[in-house]
């Protein structure tokens, strides 16, 4: 679902028209190996027509088995050396995902096989049209935000920032909404899916800091502070139903409009300017390095596909499968932080 045909009405009977534009023209439509069509918008999961299966690539990417980064086995060292050699003297765009932030205590949506390990996330249209869905979102976000807001960059974030300072990384395009690249002092960051630290009023367009909205939520729900929760991805949390059903959602203090986190929900589209900035960064770089993403979400996969079609090598550091395994020149299966540490050491040695 890339667009909405009509204004929606929130629970305060205030008609709003969110700006949700399709970005399908920005990059030519992708076709997977074997002719399987990637046929959904960039904010949604990538679905492949089961009647048109993918074929295995003729020359699979070089890879290393799980755990090498922890044991220092020689085959792992060899591939680390190959990746280091690939990155010397060339600016690379990094495409980062949830696997980079798990070391900061932020859970990922999927396991190493690409399967969901969390409840199904809220869909964009449901958030806009259902007061109950918004109530559920903000109740869970009330408990999940402190963990996200206080999270610190992990080793991988800091190493990528240092690589930017050395001219190795030209731009970080991140699928994450946690802001940890910026906390690690990376300067050129494109937040493909927005930032959870900002909240947008869909009626008047005003932005608010998420930390301020947390205080509004607390003021409206003082009794909720003592409830227990379990962490979930992207500042979400698993909360008991009675807490959710009694939760009160504040409106925009300026106009009374609907408040929405400034992120791209599942089923929404990545804004055209962000997608254009990401593709321009890839055009200006010599390679794309995927770090901690399974690329199961189309907004990430399409960038790997785009880089591949532009003749740029696509490299990956990720624990488990990726949707773009058939496009990769080289893949290292391991913990992102551990692999990046070894990579940083390898790149300090003479070529």
Quantity of strands, as a count: 13
- Strand adjacency order, main sheet: 5-4-3-11-12-13
Please compute the radius of gyration using only Cα atoms.
Answer: 21 Å
Please give the largest β-sheet: 6 strands, parallel
Mean pLDDT: 77
In helices, the fraction of residues equals 25-40%
How would you describe this structure to a colleague?
Mean pLDDT is 77; it is low at 1-75 and 230-236. The protein contains eleven helices and 13 strands. Helix 2 (74-87) crosses helix 11, helix 4 packs across helix 7 (210-220) and helix 5 (155-165) packs parallel to helix 11. It starts with 7 loop residues before the first strand and ends with a helix. The chain is elongated. With 351 residues, the chain is of the alpha/beta class. The strands form four sheets. Strands 5-4-3-11-12-13 form a six-stranded parallel sheet, sandwiched between helices. A three-stranded antiparallel sheet has the order 7-6-10. Strands 1-2 form a two-stranded antiparallel ribbon. The longest helix is centred in the middle third of the chain and has 19 residues, at 131-149.
Quick summary:
The chain is of the alpha/beta class and about 350 residues long.
Topology of this structure?
Blueprint: E1 8-9, E2 15-16, H1 68-71, H2 74-87, E3 92-96, H3 124-129, H4 131-149, H5 155-165, E4 169-174, H6 180-183, E5 189-191, E6 194-201, E7 207-209, H7 210-220, E8 229-231, E9 237-239, H8 241-245, E10 259-263, H9 272-284, E11 287-291, H10 298-309, E12 314-317, E13 330-332, H11 336-348
Parallel strand pairs: 3-4, 3-11, 4-5, 11-12, 12-13
Antiparallel strand pairs: 1-2, 6-7, 6-10, 8-9
Helix pairs in contact: 2-11, 4-7, 5-11
